[in-house]
Amino acid sequence: MAVDIADQKANNVDIWIASTTEAGNSRFTFDPAEEVAGVWSRDGSMVAYRNDADGCSLYLKRATGLERERKRFTLPVSTLDDLVPNSWSLDDRQILFTRQGASGEHLELLPVAGGEPTRLLTGKASETNGQISPDGKWVAYASDESGNWEIYVTSFPGAEGKWQVSRGGGTEPRWRGDGKEIFYIAPSGILTAVPVNGESIFATGTPVSLFQIHGRAPISSTDVFTYDVAKDGKRFLVNRYVKPEHVPPLTILLNAANRE
């Protein structure tokens, strides 16, 4: 798994690679800039991530760590926009990322080999957490087009048609490895599962509540992933909130003035 680990002494965040079966982890990125939101390619050979060294850029790096990272795309500094990689296409030729800006959040597709990104959806609503299905036919995403965040699915790559998956709100969709189930977080913090059929015509079943995740609250605009799911849909990796044993006191000084 690729995880973001903050070094408070260095005032920096880097991506580390950790094993789910063995002890220990290894540092993956080394730039003094903030490097976060690592997303694996489908074949497991590459990791896409965000780097803010010179504005906001999407970088690619071999998972072995034996080659230098490659800057693939940089947002113009003048836009003050940000980006977070979300998912790779089935053939690993495109990366779906969320662009965060003054007009909201929008999903864009970036060709890995070269070229500029293009909008996946053209509506005015915000969209985020785009997840391409295991068979490459669909994209699950969260949108606030109804006034509340809900989970939707559209076809890929054409984005033709739209189906609502969640009921009563939802964020952070994830696919089961066989594409027959979508998971998401309900507004109450309950991890929810929905059976889906994506053969020729997309259809969904009744959402089922699984468990309360007690996820850690986001601490930045790029902190958009609370959990992940194993391919078999039976194991979940959750970034849970852990109450500290000791909370340092907060001291507020009012009406202070400099004195010679």
Distance between the termini: 55 Å
Q: What is the count of β-strands?
A: 22
- Given the helix and strand composition, which structural class is it? mainly beta
Largest sheet: 5 strands, antiparallel
Characterize the overall form.
globular
Q: Give the low-pLDDT segments.
A: none
Strand content: over 45%
- Measured as a percent range, the helix fraction is under 10%
Mean pLDDT: 92
Give the radius of gyration. 20 Å
Task: Provide the CATH architecture of the domain at 120-242.
Answer: 6 Propeller
Query: If you consult CATH, what is the topology of the domain at 120-242?
Result: Neuraminidase
Q: By CATH's scheme, which homologous superfamily of the domain at 120-242 applies?
A: TolB, C-terminal domain
Count up the helices.
Answer: 0
> What letter string, H or E per element, gives the SSE order?
EEEEEEEEEEEEEEEEEEEEEE
Overall description:
The protein is an all-beta fold and 260 residues long. The protein has a domain at 120-242: 6 Propeller (Neuraminidase). It is 0% helix and 45% strand. The chain is built from no helices and 22 strands. The radius of gyration is 20 Å and the shape is globular. The chain starts with a strand and ends in a 22-residue tail after the last strand.
What secondary-structure arrangement, pairings included, does this model have?
Blueprint: E1 2-7, E2 12-18, E3 25-27, E4 35-40, E5 46-51, E6 56-62, E7 70-75, E8 82-88, E9 94-101, E10 104-111, E11 118-119, E12 127-132, E13 138-143, E14 150-155, E15 163-164, E16 171-175, E17 181-185, E18 190-197, E19 203-204, E20 208-212, E21 227-229, E22 236-238
Antiparallel strand pairs: 1-2, 2-3, 4-5, 5-6, 6-7, 8-9, 9-10, 10-11, 12-13, 13-14, 14-15, 16-17, 17-18, 18-19, 18-20, 21-22
